From TrEMBL:
One GO-annotated biological process of the protein: DNA repair
SUPFAM superfamilies on file: HAD-like
InterPro entries for the chain: HAD-like_hydrolase_sf (IPR050155), HAD-like_sf (IPR036412), HAD_sf (IPR023214), PGP-like_dom2 (IPR023198), PhnX-like (IPR022468)
NCBIfam families referenced in this protein's UniProt entry, alphabetically: PhnX-like
Record lineage: Bacteria, Bacillati, Actinomycetota, Actinomycetes, Kitasatosporales
Protein name: Haloacid dehalogenase
């Protein structure tokens, strides 16, 4: 159910997260992380709490925290991407209910939609291809497209703002995601709307604590909220 606790501004650019927000995760991120940890001879169970807490962050950043030195972190990241790609190829990825329709409705309202992710570009492209979304939006961004830092930094939101030129002011941007890091990236970018959805990693309290201005049951509620 939409939460209209703050006046909606003239939103012209909508920056949408993928896994957990528009794309059903179904535990695939955790499965791929476990595969990567086992590849490096580590116990995945000892790492899952950190993985869950940092959902939405650039995956290479997570591996740098877990494994430290760069060569090992890069190896873990490659193993993660390979495991996730295998799950995608196996038909394990699906759009969340109403996600495509919401994106099409936002576009029909005259807003520009950009899809962002913490995954590397090959994984993002594999998901977009599997869903038939390659031509759904004018721009998709991964951390490497925006300087490499990923969330919770505002870089991808600000890159979307600059590259689309869809908005005149960052307050005309809405950032939507399912994690605390999505919310932080929106707050740090100065977005007028920072909306959390309850279809992914974090609950209402976590989203609010990270700065969510609105909390929705799912992305399907977004077009109605912005009108």
């Amino acid at each position: 159910m939409a939460d209209h606790t703050r006046e909606i501004r003239d939103i012209r650019l909508v920056v949408l997260d993928m896994a957990g927000t528009t794309v059903a995760d179904g535990g695939l991120v955790e499965q791929a992380f476990a595969a990567a940890a086992r590849h490096l001879g580590a116990d995945p169970d000892s790492m899952l709490d950190h993985v869950r807490a940092t959902m939405g962050e650039s995956k290479i950043s997570v591996f740098r925290h877990l494994f430290g030195e760069e060569p090992k972190a890069q190896e873990a990241n490659r193993a993660f991407e390979a495991a996730y790609a295998e799950l995608v190829d196996g038909g394990r990825v699906a759009a969340l209910p109403g996600a495509r329709e919401a994106i099409e409705a936002l576009t029909a309202q005259g807003r520009t939609v950009v899809l962002t992710t913490g995954f590397a570009r090959p994984t993002q492209d594999a998901i977009l291809t599997a869903l038939g979304w390659r031509d759904l939006v004018p721009l998709t961004l991964c951390p490497a497209d925006a300087g490499g830092r990923g969330r919770p930094y505002p870089d991808m939101v600000l890159t979307a703002f600059l590259r689309t030129a869809a908005a005149e002011d960052v307050r005309q941007v809405a950032v939507v995601g399912d994690t605390s890091y999505d919310m932080l990236s929106g707050v740090r970018a100065g977005a007028g709307v920072v909306a959390g959805v309850l279809t992914g990693a974090h609950d209402t309290d976590a989203l609010r604590a990270a700065g969510a201005t609105h909390v929705l049951g799912g992305v399907a509620e977004l077009p109605g909220m912005l009108t």
